[in-house]
Design brief:
This protein is α+β, with helices and mostly antiparallel strands. Helices cover about 30% and strands about 25% of the residues. The chain contains 7 helices and 16 strands. The strands form 4 sheets. Strands 8, 9, 12, 13, 14, 15 and 16 form a 7-stranded antiparallel β-sheet that branches. A 5-stranded antiparallel β-sheet has the order 1-2-3-7-6. A two-stranded antiparallel sheet has the order 4-5. The radius of gyration is 19 Å and the shape is globular.
């Protein structure tokens, strides 16, 4: 049986609210944080009026999978993602937390998005067509849409509290966080991408690009937030991959495409997603999980 509950907001009386993002509701538990991935979905930095069932569960459980798989590369903030192992004080909220909540260590967030691009797509493709550069860095001539880059490139951006993140150069990143930390962020981001891309490719998925967030715990660099999900990455179908054209994806690109075709001006409020778009998006998220993890998310229900 598949979970069709949609949770677009949380209500946890007695817990201290920390913050609310486009998708996540975060509560402060003292030395730890409770991060809940709701079923909200955003596009073009606007939260859409209706959610996508099971989306939050996919984001949480896929992040937990990758956090466990990549501990040998870099530590992360995850303590637990199974509500049964949460403190007794949280058990009364099980219906809101099941599958979609992570208990994590508090970290000092580094205010930068660490983006790695392995293929020519999205804003990188748009910039390259115009100027032959990606985030201001010149690349080889003659690359085509969706083509694999000779080497993955690290293209950081700002972490905006509101509005759009903006691409920045590695030099600006170094000026912002310090040269040594900037170098470590680039090295670990590229190492993470190469490892995950190889694993996903074995499972029939191309990770075209992804973004990661890092923080510091007692001075140690750690991964935080989410990791290698359909919200933070561009997942393509390897079997049908063709250079020179846009690719079918397992992420919310399907929603972006529908919004583009709807004529929406990308300013709030966003239009309501039709039921068929919601259901197809849900199916894409669940399929991404099944492919990468190797089993359905809700196989035991």
């Amino acid at each position: 049986m598949v979970n069709h509950i949609i949770i677009t907001s949380t209500n946890l009386p007695g817990l201290k609210h920390h913050s609310r993002g486009k998708v996540r509701d975060i509560y402060d538990l003292g030395s730890e944080l409770l991060i809940i991935a709701t079923d909200r979905i955003s596009a073009f930095d606007v939260i859409l009026p209706n959610g996508v069932p099971d989306k939050g569960a996919v984001l949480t459980q896929l992040s937990a999978f990758w956090f466990q798989k990549t501990r040998h590369i870099i530590p992360n903030h995850l303590i637990a993602a199974d509500v049964a192992s949460f403190p007794d004080s949280l058990q009364r909220f099980t219906d809101q937390l099941r599958d979609r909540a992570m208990l994590v260590k508090k970290a000092e967030r580094i205010d930068a998005e660490c983006v790695v691009r392995g293929y020519m797509a999205g804003s990188a493709w748009a910039e390259y067509r115009q100027s032959g550069t990606v985030c201001g860095e010149r690349l080889a001539a003659g690359l085509r849409e969706s083509e694999e880059l000779p080497e993955p490139v690290f293209t950081p951006s700002t972490k905006a509290a509101e509005g759009h993140d903006e691409n920045i150069s590695t030099r600006v990143l170094a000026d912002t966080v310090g040269a040594d930390l900037a170098r470590r962020l680039e090295e670990k981001s590229l190492e993470m991408y190469r490892y995950a891309a190889a694993m996903a490719r074995e499972r029939g998925i191309i990770i075209a690009d992804t973004k990661m967030e890092f923080g510091l715990i007692d001075g140690e660099l750690v991964l935080i937030d989410e990791l290698l999900t359909p919200d933070s990455s561009r997942f393509w179908e390897a079997e049908t991959y063709r250079v020179g054209e846009s690719q079918p994806s397992f992420d919310k690109q399907f929603v972006r495409d529908w919004l583009e075709e709807s004529g929406w001006n990308k300013e709030p409020p966003a239009p309501q997603l039709p039921p068929e778009v919601v259901e197809k998006t849900r199916a894409k998220y669940l399929e991404a999980y099944r492919r990468i993890v190797g089993k359905p998310l809700f196989e035991k229900r």
